[in-house]
Task: structure prediction
Amino acid sequence: WVSYEACVLMAGGKVRWVSHEKGFEDAPIEEHVTNKTKMIIINTPSNPLGVVYPKRFLKKVRDLAVDKDLIVLSDEIYEKIIFEGEHISLASMDGMLERTITINGFSKTYSMTGWRLGYAATSEWIIEEMNKMQSHSTSHPTSFVQYAGIAALKGGNSFINEMVNEFKNRRDVIVDKLKELNIKFAPPKGAFYIFMDVERDGMKFSKEFLQKEHVAVTPGSAFGLAFNNWVRLSYATSMENIKKFLERLERFVG
Result:
């Protein structure tokens, strides 16, 4: 997610991006950990890739964190939106409860995006340090949004499967068309994004696509320099809009 780098830089840290290996379900993070490393950041299911990291990768993260005495920030806000595989919370793994900062919120599962209600679960001493920063920045979510969060948690989750199935249907329609157009993409197993390789500068592609076809996508460079030739699209919209998008995409790349 685009904010990770900015947050690290604001804290005076240095960012090391780690490129995924083929299949997007593994990354050689062990090659980038040094004696100066303080934290590993992961996001599963992933924005923008839609990757649901398997247990073998999370175990590698766990082993590194324990062996090197590192903290891991695990962004799990898409944990309920999964089409393939299963979500494993890193904090549930042996030795990780005290050294994991689990980030989650209500924006995705409960469609409360604009209300900006989220939470962190971690060791008390870390929360105390986070509060020092929080109290001088956003302070706290407004009260009615907090009540909405309580209502969401108490209201039952029967709608989630229906929502996830609808996202899966939208994903499948887009994936089928991308295959037909021979456009490469990261296989999305969760969240509601598709990251596709446009084989040209993603920023220029995004601008031209917007100007000519009135469709907005996000340049891949926002997620790291390794993705300069990629763009991210979101299918958190109606099937009608998705079909219009695919018609315009075919016309644009044809």
